[in-house]
Structures are given as structure tokens and as C-alpha cells.
Design a protein that fits this description.
This protein has helices at 4-30, 44-47, 67-74, 86-99, 136-146, 204-214, 239-242, and strands spanning 57-61, 78-83, 105-107, 120-126, 147-158, 186-189, 195-199, 216-222, 248-255. By secondary structure, it is α/β, with parallel strands linked by helices. The longest helix has 27 residues, at 4-30. The protein is globular. Bound molecules: S-adenosylmethionine.
Length: 256
């Protein structure tokens, strides 16, 4: 058992340490002011999962270097963004300075959001926070509090089926070697046994149940196919695996 406090502490340290390499490795693919939902390359400019954002108050959850928030700003949205990692937010500021824009960002944990009730019309998260947190119900409950009734929350996570396969972009990643139903979190620890990186697994049924339990209404689920001609590997996501297995789940919810 790794609780919320241990998970947040571990992942804050991990992302602070990994942020520089992460931005070097993935920055071009994400684009400084692009809104990419997943390694399959689903781009909000075409997908429009958030609908019309012009003039809308939009929150980005777990924003990293705030590439998505910067795209939203360019579309005429009023934006706020937050992330657990200070170093990721420093990258957001670096890009802002280069681009001559300013995305309002704050360091915070998705389980306790520092925003007023009904402060936003929309919220979004591209692999931010939800694949990692110990208590996604707390995140959904916070989204439901800060987004006004009738608003929308769209978020992407690793597709749950990936849990049952080795995280390998090659052929080895096509043979299941563990149980999809085993919710034991993936934990890396230092020499003293303290967690240094944590991912918690939810099955597809778990996600649907948690969304329903929070009072959000699930209105869409996209399982993007790997596009022909897309050769870029991202961790365990690759053309070889993408042809046979879904890698991402993008949930669209309405706040009731
Ligand atoms: C894979 S990145 C996604 C960010 C961005 N959309 C991108 O594609 O680079 C995951 C981000 O989630 C953040 N994160 C992890 N746990 C979080 C939490 N509990 N609250 C807020 N952010 C969190 C990490 O710091 C990291 O910046």
C-alpha cells in the first residue's frame, strides 16, 4: 500500500529530477504551444474534444511545461494550469519567455486544487496527474467542485490494458505477462525503501466506476488507433504495439 502522501512526495521528486530530460526528449513532439493528448498524436486542434474554448475559463491539470494551456491561450481561452513538479513549471516559464506569452501556473497537487468553486467552464489533463495519483476519486471530486455544472472534463491516461503487458516498445511488449486485474501499484524505491516513483493501476471498469461515484457523467471514451506513417516511439508506445493494442484512453465527462 502506497498512500496519497507517499505517492505525491515520490512523484514530485521524480518529476523534478526527470523534467529536463523529459522536455528534451518529448518537447518537439508536444510543441511549445501544441495540445497533444497522447503518444498516438491526437491533436486537440483537430479532435476538439473540449469543444469551443474561445472565451472559456479552462484549467489544465498536471500541465508539465503547459504546452496544452499555451495552445488554449492562443485559441482565446482564459487559462490556469498547475503541476506537482516545480521543475516542470520552470520549463513552462522558460517556454513562456521564449514565446512572449504568460501561462498562469501554480504548483499544486491534483488531489487538493487551490481554486474556488465553479471557477472554470472546462478542465483538461493530457496524461497529467491521473495516471499517477493514489486517489483519483479525490481528483474527480475536486474537478467537480472547481468546474461549474454543465462544464466538461476531458483527460487522457495510459490505456488500462497496457498494465498486463511489459512496458517495451518492441515485440516483447505484445505478450501479456501479468494480470490486468492486479491493482498492486508500480513502485520504485531508494535504498532505504522510500518510494521514489509510483503509478497506480485502474481497470477500465474502475475508471468508469470512479467517474460515476464522483458525480461526473461519462459522455465519451476515445481509444485512439496508431496512425499509419507515425513512427515516433514514446516509452512503451510504438508502431509495433500500436497496431495491435490500444495505448491511451481519453475520457470525456460532463459536470452534473
Ligand atoms: C506525462 S506528464 C504530462 C504533462 C503534459 N501534458 C505532457 O504531455 O508533458 C505528467 C505530469 O503530471 C504531473 N503530476 C504527477 N502527479 C501529479 C499530481 N498529483 N498533481 C499534479 N500534477 C501531477 C507530473 O509532475 C508531470 O508534469
Amino acid at each position: 500500500m502506497v498512500d496519497s502522501r507517499q505517492t505525491s512526495r515520490a512523484n514530485r521528486g521524480w518529476w523534478d529530477g526527470a523534467a529536463d530530460d523529459y522536455q528534451v526528449e518529448h518537447g518537439d513532439f508536444l510543441r511549445d504551444d501544441g495540445f497533444i493528448w497522447c503518444p498516438e498524436g491526437v491533436d486537440e486542434a483537430e479532435a476538439r474534444l473540449l469543444g469551443d474554448v474561445r472565451g472559456r475559463r479552462v484549467l489544465e491539470v498536471g500541465c508539465g511545461a503547459a504546452q496544452c494551456a499555451r495552445w488554449l491561450l492562443g485559441q482565446g481561452a482564459e487559462v490556469a494550469a498547475f503541476d506537482l513538479s516545480r521543475r516542470q513549471l520552470q520549463h513552462a516559464r522558460r517556454i513562456d519567455l521564449d514565446a512572449g506569452v504568460k501561462v498562469p501556473v501554480v504548483q499544486a497537487d491534483a488531489e487538493v486544487m487551490p481554486f474556488a468553486d465553479n471557477a472554470f467552464d472546462l478542465a483538461c489533463s493530457a496524461f497529467g496527474a491521473l495516471p499517477f495519483v493514489a486517489d483519483p476519486l479525490a481528483v474527480f471530486t475536486e474537478v467537480r467542485r472547481v468546474v461549474r455544472p454543465g462544464g466538461r472534463f476531458v483527460f487522457s491516461v495510459s490505456h488500462p490494458i497496457r498494465w498486463a503487458f511489459p512496458d517495451d516498445p518492441g515485440p516483447r511488449g505484445l505478450t501479456s505477462d501479468r494480470s490486468y486485474f492486479d491493482r498492486t501499484p508500480y513502485v520504485e524505491r531508494d535504498g532505504s525503501g522510500t518510494p521514489t516513483y509510483v503509478e497506480h493501476h485502474r481497470t477500465m471498469g474502475d475508471w468508469v466506476g470512479l467517474i460515476a461515484a464522483s458525480g461526473l457523467r461519462l459522455t465519451g471514451l476515445l481509444e485512439p488507433e496508431w496512425p499509419d506513417g507515425h513512427e515516433q516511439i514514446w516509452g512503451g508506445w510504438s508502431p509495433i504495439r500500436g497496431r495491435n493494442l490500444p495505448g491511451t484512453a481519453i475520457f470525456t465527462c460532463t459536470v452534473s
